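User: Structure with magnesium ion, tokens only please.
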Amino acid sequence: MAQQSKLTLSVIKADVGSVAGHNRPHPDLLQQAEACLAAAKQQGLLCDYRVARCGDDINLIMTHSHGVAHEPIHRLAWDTFMECTKVAKRLHLYGAGQDLLADAFSGNVKGLGPGVAEMEFIERPSEPVVILMADKTSPGAWNLPLYKIFADPFNTPGLVIDPKLHGGFTFTVLDVKKKATITLACPEEQYDLLMFLGAHGRYMVKEVRRKGDNEIAAVASTDVLSEIAGKYVGKDDPVCIIRAQAGLPAVGEILEPFAFPHLVEGWMRGSHHGPLMPVPFHQANPTRLDGPPRVIAAGFQLNEGTFIGPIDLFDDPAYDEARRQANVAADYLRRHGPFEPHRLPLEEMEYTTLPLIMSRLRDRFTSVG
Ligand code: F6R
Ligand code: MG
Ligand code: MG
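Assistant:
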């Protein structure tokens, strides 16, 4: 039998300018992104594409046959965001080009500002995929849901009753401070894993694989803009690709963790804890104190590399209660004003203006030791 060719699904995202502060991209930017990707499809570089947005971030969702970290695909994304930046500058949009941290493309968008989640796999006879996109938060926001989806039988019945999931999954976790990864297997290393995942400001799930055959199941963007830039330039507003069904978690098992609007880092000035609110596409417009943080879920079927979809998966009254609880949590947290734990601890704010304030006041501390 002939070797089946592999498909790559790449999601590359950036905030390159928005309307009314950091709220949403202008439709002309989305149109520009569509035009760039349509041309790349025409030329045969892309198999197919979709352009999506969550809050002020533009997500380029692309399929192709070139593998992950393929230079022409990354260059296409970079050039697309540059073209969108030109439109944003012409319209005097806010934060035009804000996530493009380098002056020129140098082989791979990783480290240059945009967020990247990519995976390569052989498309199954039926290939359902969920793409999660969030705004006003960081990749650590995926830790709790990914843990629940792939390691918690109270969330995912399939871990108990589907023999194909029963063997468990491996999690590769990135230590963003040390720039090192560790891979831990569940269920046997569950407690070790939680040690790290609970500290979601520092440790972030990079990918999840099915243990038995090492099949890729999920991959998240783990690019930390502040670590890249050396100063605060906004939160990373992460994306995550998850393959579903037939030996992997069902779409419903993937969405279930979001019925609990857990607290994440981000929100106003990237410096606050707030609930992650699951919303339909048209409600991904963070306005209350630039938030609270939002997540959308786009469902697709792949058809020989082309997209059927997206389906707006949180457009369901079943998530009304999560949205209500998110509002209650937001109210409660807001009443703390500038006090922790609503405001992030100082070490998490090291890339804000805080160091400047500290350096001004340093001499006024009197030692009592
Ligand atoms: C958070 C975010 C916003 C901005 C805030 C201040 O990720 O994008 O909350 O941090 O609106 O923005 P600047 O400093 O651009 O005025
Ligand atoms: Mg912005
Ligand atoms: Mg954003």
